[in-house]
Structure formats: C-alpha cells, structure tokens
Amino acid sequence: MFGTLYESDHTKWMREMLAKNPAWVEDQKAGRAIWWDKRIDLDQQARYQQSQEANKSYPYDVNFDF
Q1: Exposure string for 30-50, b = 16+ CB within 10 A, e = fewer
Q2: Percentage of the chain with pLDDT > 90?
Q3: Phi then psi for 2, rounded to 5 degrees?
Q4: CA 35 to CA 42: how far, in whole Å?
Q5: Is-contact 55 49, C-beta < 8 A?
Q6: Could you give the CA distance from residue 36 to residue 27 in angstroms, rounded to a whole number?
Q7: pLDDT exceeding 70 applies to what percent of the chain?
Q8: pTM (predicted TM-score)
Q9: Under a CB-based contact definition with an 8 Å cutoff, are residues 4 and 11 in contact?
Q10: Whole-angstrom Cα distance, residue 64 to residue 66?
Q11: Average pLDDT over residues 33-52
Q12: What span, in angstroms and rounded, lies between the C-alpha atoms of 30 and 35?
C-alpha cells in the first residue's frame, strides 16, 4: 500500500558501519550493560526511599535553626 518505508541517512550509515565492524555490536551491548541493564532490588530501593530525611519547607529561611 505505502511501498518501502523511509530510512534516514543516519540509519543507513549505521547499518553500513555495523556490517563493516561487527565487533561494535558487542561494544554496544557492553556499554548498555554499564549504564542501563541493571537489576533493581525493590526492597532495597524502598528502604532507601524511607530512610531519606524529609525536605524542609523552606530551606532558605534566615530564621531557621540548624
């Protein structure tokens, strides 16, 4: 119905570069694992959030006792 889908120049370039450099795929996976692919311990996260001190209503008040 619509024919071929549009593919940007950047996408075409990335496909070409990944075809020429297949090791990049593993590098991408390793980089993603460092920053994004993390297991989250929900109990630990909840304990952390509960342990946080509540924010003061207005921290810049000159009459505020520390």
Answers
A1: eeeeeeeeeeeeeeeeeeeee
A2: 44
A3: -100, -10
A4: 18
A5: no
A6: 14
A7: 85
A8: 0.44
A9: no
A10: 6
A11: 87
A12: 9
Both tokens assigned to 12: 């075409």
In this model, does residue 63 exceed pLDDT 90?
Answer: no
* Distance in angstroms (rounded) separating the CA atoms of residues 39 and 23: 25
Q: Would you say 24 and 17 are in contact if contact means Cβ atoms under 8 Å apart?
A: yes
**CA pair distance 49, 43, nearest whole angstrom:** 10
Structure letter (DSSP) for residue 62: T
Round to whole Å and give the CA distance between 41 and 43: 6
Given a contact cutoff of 8 angstroms between Cβ atoms, the answer to whether 56 and 64 are in contact is: yes
Q: What per-residue confidence (pLDDT) applies to 15?
A: 94
Report pLDDT for 33.
87
Q: How far apart are alpha carbons 15 and 22 in whole angstroms?
A: 10
Tokens 């694992």 belong to residue: 33
